[in-house]
Design goal:
CATH architecture of the largest domain in chain B: Beta Barrel
Largest sheet of chain B: 8 strands, antiparallel, barrel
Number of helices of chain A: 2
Shape of chain B: elongated
Number of strands of chain A: 16
CATH architecture of the largest domain in chain A: Beta Barrel
Number of strands of chain B: 11
Structural class of chain B: alpha+beta
Number of domains of chain B: 2
Strand order of the largest sheet of chain A: 9-10-11-12-13-14-15-16
Number of helices of chain B: 3
CATH topology of the largest domain in chain A: Porin
Distance between the termini of chain B: 62 Å
Shape of chain A: elongated
Radius of gyration of chain A: 30 Å
Radius of gyration of chain B: 34 Å
Oligomer: heterodimer
Largest interface: A-B, 55 and 47 residues
Helix content of chain B: 10-25%
Helix content of chain A: 10-25%
CATH class of the largest domain in chain B: Mainly Beta
Distance between the termini of chain A: 73 Å
CATH class of the largest domain in chain A: Mainly Beta
Strand content of chain A: over 45%
Largest sheet of chain A: 8 strands, antiparallel, barrel
Number of domains of chain A: 2
Chain lengths: 272, 220
């Protein structure tokens, strides 16, 4: 009986051993695969200084002649081949192959590349994946500033999903006067995850108004303004959002009455 | 259907139990220490690292040669440049600035009266913010020798034109072609229509002012 048990045990031990060996061979990292070792440590001679070496872990990777889907695929690199990452433009990465040829790979296709130590390497692409990510955004706007046309730029930074700050500058061109506005504003988004996400804005700035010389002969004037507004944004992609806004500019003038101007704006933001 | 599925589950569970029985034997034989090993997951943590890589999303363009025709005021050489940010392979946003001069209007030439504008008032400057769509990417072949990556883009935006001591809100639309000679150096040619309204001749007129510019740009 004891003999039988010992026999069973030894068999199962052997089984376990082969099992673990099989598992290990099934999970050989690409950096230690036959094809990776076949190419050795050779590097192309014209390799630029300070580039990162990775190994292709996908079955194959298409390389295009330019950073776009409209360009020709003129090379393919295979599993285990080394690649050197040169630079990124939009969603594309320029790479050099072991023979010294260069091509562009789509970042979406580069999801299985590994560093020398076997760790997975990802190429960071700009943009936000999550409505709560921090980050810088830059935008252009077109507006109606109480009958006058305005064009503006804004630079924003999101601290949390809800709170962001913005620097805004706009040039307004009207029939009777032109003005430049510079503002700093704080934006609050109560529901950042909504598809159409509303926001509230409070800010302050200055308005420099220059009446058109041909019509009214008055001097330029500079007024401090209080800004309040509401708006709505919608993310079209991880890089791009549309926004619409209505804002109230309250001009603290040196004249008898303060002045209120309502501005409607349409624009887009790009996440950097 | 459901009973069939359940049967498969039961069979699978049975098979798993049978397969793990020998391992369970060993574990019992080796005592408590191994229990920890069994319980703690035997998975290697997946390491993910971000590649350190330079990006080239900005494009700076200098107009190598440009010409702008201002309605009623003739055509003149235009100088300027632009700064673009490439959002993705399809879209880029651009801020541009340019300067040109106005010639004499035909009214001034024919009537022989005093000129409408002074010399200083004939200096025109414009800037605009635009969004462009690379809508036809592909290749341009020049003879047998060169195949250049290229794209055709549609561009449009808003801006400001200033001359004759006035500012004019300006819409611009246009089309352009970009040829990538190196991947950091491109040649651009585009044609724009700058549309604004002015009252220099007494009553408001909407004018279409065409410009064509050849630019050299570098990516950085």
């Amino acid at each position: 009986m004891a003999l039988l048990l010992a026999g069973l045990l030894s068999v199962s031990l052997a089984q376990a051993q082969t099992h673990t060996e099989e598992q290990a061979s099934g999970e050989t990292p690409v950096t230690e695969s036959f094809s990776a070792q076949q190419f050795g440590d050779r590097a192309p001679q014209q390799l630029p200084f300070d580039t990162e070496k990775v190994f292709v872990g996908a079955e194959f990777l298409n390389l295009y002649t330019g950073p776009g889907r409209g360009y020709v695929i003129d090379q393919v690199v295979e599993y285990g081949e080394p690649l050197w990452l040169l630079k990124r433009r939009t969603d594309w990465v320029k790479v050099m192959t072991r023979t010294g040829k260069m091509g562009w790979a789509k970042i979406a296709d580069l999801d299985a590349v590994y560093g020398a130590a076997g760790e997975q390497v990802v190429v960071p692409a700009p943009g936000v994946d999550n409505a709560r990510d921090r980050g810088v955004r830059f935008g252009f706007t077109y507006g109606d500033f109480e009958g006058a046309n305005s064009l503006g730029i804004s630079l924003g930074y999101r601290f949390t999903g809800n709170i962001s700050a913005e620097l805004r500058a706009a040039q307004t061109i009207g029939a009777y006067s032109d003005s430049q506005t510079y503002q700093v504003a704080l934006l609050h988004k109560p529901f950042p995850d909504w598809r159409l996400s509303p926001y509230f804005m409070l800010g302050t700035g200055i308005n420099i108004t220059s009446p058109n010389a041909t019509i009214v002969a008055t001097e330029d004037r500079q007024d401090t303004t209080m800004l309040s507004g509401i708006g709505v944004t919608t993310n079209l992609s991880r890089r791009f959002a549309l926004r619409a806004e209505v804002a109230n500019h309250y001009l603290l003038t040196s004249r008898e009455n303060n002045q209120e101007i309502v501005e409607w704006k349409l624009g887009f933001d790009v996440f950097m | 259907m459901e009973t069939g599925l359940r049967r498969i589950h039961v069979t699978l569970a049975g098979l798993l139990l049978a397969a793990s029985a020998p391992f369970a034997n060993i574990a019992c034989a080796q005592g408590d220490e191994t229990i920890d090993e069994i319980i703690s997951p035997d998975l290697e943590r997946r390491e993910i690292r971000e590649a350190e890589i330079d990006s080239e999303d900005f494009e700076f363009t200098v107009y190598w040669g440009g010409i702008m025709s201002v309605e009623d005021f003739g055509s003149n050489r235009m100088i300027g440049g632009s700064l673009a940010y490439h959002i993705n392979e399809d879209f880029f946003m651009e801020a541009a600035y340019a300067q040109t001069e106005l010639g004499e209007s035909s009214y001034e030439r024919l009537s022989g009266s005093a000129p409408l504008l002074t010399e200083d008032e004939r200096d025109l400057s414009l800037y605009n913010l635009s969004l462009a769509w690379n809508f036809l990417p592909g290749e341009i072949f020049i003879l047998d020798r060169w195949a250049l990556n290229s794209n055709l883009y549609l561009i449009g935006g808003i801006g400001n034109t200033s001359f004759a001591d006035e500012e004019y809100f300006t819409y611009n639309v246009g089309v352009g072609v970009r040829m990538l000679t190196k991947d950091w150096l491109t040649l651009r040619f585009d044609v724009r229509d700058h549309i604004f309204e002015h009252e220099i001749f007494g009553e408001p007129v909407t004018t279409n002012n065409l410009s064509a510019q050849l630019g050299v740009s570098i990516y950085f």
